[in-house]
Amino acid sequence: MSFALANGVLTSTVVGDIALIFATLFVILNYIFPVAKLRQSSSNLEKQVGVGCFKKHWFFGHLRVFPPQEHGLLKRAQRTIQTPAWVTTWFGPLMSEATTHHSETAITLLASSAPKNEYVYKFLRPWLGDGLLVSNGKKWMRNRHLLTPAFHFSILKPYAEISNNCIKTMIEKWTTKTNIAFDIYKDVNSMTLDTMLQCAMSFKIEGLNERQKNTYLQAVRDLSTLTMARISNPLLHIEWIFWRSSTGRKYKAALEIVHQQTKQVIRERKEELEKASEVSETGTEGSETAQVTRKGKYIDFLDILLHTKDENGIGLSDVEIENEVDTFLNEGHDTTASGISWSLYTLAQHPEYQQKCRDELEEVLKDKEDIDWSDLTKLQYLTMCIKETLRIRPPVPAISRQLDQPLTFKSKTHNVPPTTLAKGSFAGVQIFSLHRNVHVWEEPEVFNPDRFTQDNIKKRSPHAFLPFSAGSRNCIGQNFAMNEMKIAVGQIIRKYELYIDDDTPDTVMEAALVLRSTNGIMIKIRKI
Known about the structure:
This protein is an alpha+beta fold. The protein is 50% helix and 12% strand. It has one domain (38-527): CATH 1.10.630.10. It starts with a strand and ends with a strand.
């Protein structure tokens, strides 16, 4: 570098060098200060809450202590024995979270206005954009308000017929799989995607050829798996490393497949609406018969996205519509597939409860072929069995928030002194551990549907059971999901006896974005 003067003035070369030095220093300081602040905040959190019985690694934190496989999940649940209310969890060397796993501490967080933890949920943004799952603040409030009518019972009611048809199509394919162990998750996952596309987008997956369908389903699975791989590796948290890694390249390829399918569904609907001369409306808003017909079809989720407007008469942009479609397709089919598959697996493990559900179905349905909307509330024992499955194996094992204001936690039962976490702190709910916390549930490892009788529900906190989260950011589609699960499980056990014998391969849990299995959810079936 030359500092020579020309007529007492710095040369342009020197000025450029100085500018480069200052720019480099700015970039370094701009990175170091936030990192140092995050590290300090995380250390303060650990001092307040403690790390419990499992020490952290200096670089990986607790990522290797609690890997996203069954033994890691169970080890997390084991922490609740010594730390009943909450504990600090480190995600790498910089970030820690106050992880609650008791109803008394979970309610404090979920009743607050705390938004999603951007440090964690940012890993979903390339896939889901700023959709309802990821967005925060005024945008989330606006879009939540705009999308809520899509889940009114008058909209959900016609979906029962679609669910029945999609499930019966899958059941017919299972006639060749009797008395052999097979992975039910893949078939159920395909079925719930088909159901979601038809209910939400009036799009039949049969319109895709087998290669396209399998490619799309595999891309969705890959995005889920690769996102978890990124979260579990602190080096991949850095953008420029992730996108240049083999994980990032695979993620990008899967992303293009999924986004292309989303754009196709939206494009086809817009073309259909442009050709339609008019959209007829019948009924009144909020009534049981309220509906908008489109060539004789009921209004669906995509119709609402395309037509909804806020109080200023402004609708959703094209990008917002794509984000919400991606969010709804992913959240709507993958979580439901997890709940259905684990329910079938659990009933295969417990033939006595399976038979009780079958007896109830026979009593309610008689000789009817379909499970109608009006039948769903009558299937009380089946509902109890599904809820108990969601307790033991919740589709979404954990959620995370970032405090937008100081928040005070306490637990009277376990003598946790009032502890105020600072604004900006990370806090989350380990739903899997909460549902297996020995201080919340008696014999939590035992499958017992009677926990969900009305009398037993009244005896415990509503925040003891959180498969769909709670508070203002609870799952907007939980009624849709429960209805589909009841129809699917009910129809399957009417046709088949589910069982597991000594020749059935073991099924091992794995936490991707939803709770799956490392080797498939394996059962056997025989025709009734």
